[in-house]
Design a protein that fits this description.
The chain has 182 residues and is mainly alpha-helical. Helices cover 84% and strands 0% of the residues. Helix 3 packs antiparallel against helix 4, helix 3 packs across helix 7 and helix 4 crosses helix 5. It holds the Pfam family DUF308.
């Protein structure tokens, strides 16, 4: 039995239907994020703020519940840090968007530099140039985000989330199509 036959036989009923549904929803949501990048950026920033607040509250509860294990202070500090960071993002969302854009820009710059260095170390192998190209694009994107501040903060995160959602949706539909062909 081939690997594809095994996947087809072991795939739960309805899997391809759910892949199609989630794929289409991902593409639609991604397209909306690309069309309305500021709204998507703001939504992403607020979601991160809510997650941090919820995580901080849960961490504080856990710290007190497990206070006898000797790590109360560190758990409290972590919980307070998450709670404060999330609260700041929720209280000042526009500043939070700028901060997220700075973090993203620095990530692209550093990640791109690391990929460039790695590509030169891979030079005898086929395809090393693609890693270098990816690194150069990341560096360029990082510079675009950072040198374009504060304007890039209004669209960057939402646009990138939208593009990611579109590619996720396409990948899910491709998986559903592959299951259907078997």
């Amino acid at each position: 039995m081939s690997d594809q036959e095994m996947v087809h036989e072991t795939a739960p009923r309805g899997l391809k239907t759910w892949l199609w549904i989630v794929g289409i929803v991902s593409i639609v949501m991604g397209a909306l994020a690309v069309l309305f990048p500021f709204a998507a950026t703001l939504a992403a920033e607020l979601v991160i703020g809510v997650i941090l607040v919820a995580s901080g509250i849960l961490e504080l509860v856990r710290a007190f519940a497990m206070r006898h294990n000797g790590s109360l202070t560190w758990n409290l500090l972590f919980g307070l840090a998450a709670l404060v960071a999330g609260g700041i993002l929720l209280a000042w969302p526009l500043q939070g968007i700028v901060t997220l854009t700075i973090v993203l820009g620095v990530f692209f710059l550093l990640g791109g530099a690391f990929k460039l260095v790695a590509s030169f170390g891979m030079r005898p192998f086929p395809g090393w140039g693609w890693i270098g190209f990816s690194g150069a694009l990341s560096v360029l994107l990082g510079m675009l985000l950072l040198f374009g501040l504060p304007g890039t903060a209004l669209w960057a995160v939402g646009l990138l989330v939208g593009i990611d959602l579109i590619f996720l949706g396409v990948a899910e539909i491709a998986m559903a199509s592959a299951i259907e062909r078997d």
